[in-house]
Amino acid sequence: MRHIRLLAATGTAVAALALTACGSGTGTEDEGASRPSGTAGSAASKTPEGTSTTPEAAEGTGGRAATGTPAARTHAPGTRPSATPAHSGGTRAGGSVVLCNGANTTVTAQPLSRPLNHMLITVKNTGGKTCELPYYPVLRFDQMQWVPQADESTRPQAVVSLAPGESGYAGVLLSAADGSGTGGTTGRKLTVAFQGMTPNSSGGASATPSLPAKGVYYDSTLKVTYWRQDLDAISNW
After folding, report:
1. How much helix, strand and coil, in percent to the nearest 5, is found in the chain?
2. Contact 227/170 with Cβ under 8 angstroms?
3. Quick one: where's region Disordered (predicted)?
4. Does residue 157 contact residue 80 with C-beta atoms inside 8 Å?
């Protein structure tokens, strides 16, 4: 009997210990109901390998494309890199500008009596669209092997933009009035080339305006102005 009571007492103590353990939250749980490894919600915050949840990658359309390529940025109207005059308008189709050239304008070259040893080049838009005259004319008399440079003081604030029927102008200093120029000669044929929207690029077809029958005398001081919309801007150049 004593042996039986001892066993019963022992069983009662074990049962009480088990109940105490369950009540304190330290008991063993059913494995089938166990939580996923890690903290709650951690799986939702994880991303596939190689991706990122940093603000830069999560911007989406807020400054970057979804592929990680920087999104296209727009520039304020009328702005260009410093090497190019500001854009003042013109027709754009797929990002291209309609340029004034020998195909959509008429070009004349008129020697002037005042200022002395000067010539005026006039370009009139004869096309149906607004066209632009970037930079300055590239002149070539006969087979001349050098290119007259432009007077930077005549650079406009914006690219000259000609609506149909409008004209743009450039002045030409043919020779030094004091005789300081060298290599003077008479030109019989003049070719006027047009530049594109980047310096020294082609703007399209050239023009060959008529010269006086006696030709035009020029020397090493030959230079030009930038294209200007207002004739008065170069009238006293």
Report:
1. 15, 25, 60
2. yes
3. 26-92
4. no
CA separation for the pair 53, 69 (Å, rounded): 16
Per-residue pLDDT of the chain (237 residues; tens, 9 = 90+): 444 343 344 444 434 433 333 344 444 344 444 444 443 444 333 443 443 333 333 333 333 333 333 333 333 333 333 344 444 433 444 456 799 999 999 999 999 988 899 999 999 999 999 999 999 999 999 999 999 999 999 999 999 999 999 999 999 999 998 989 999 999 999 999 999 999 999 999 999 999 999 999 999 999 999 999 999 999 889
In eight-state DSSP terms, residue 184 is -
Task: Give 97's contacts (C-beta < 8 A, 6+ positions apart).
Answer: 90, 91, 132, 197
pTM (2 decimals)?
0.61
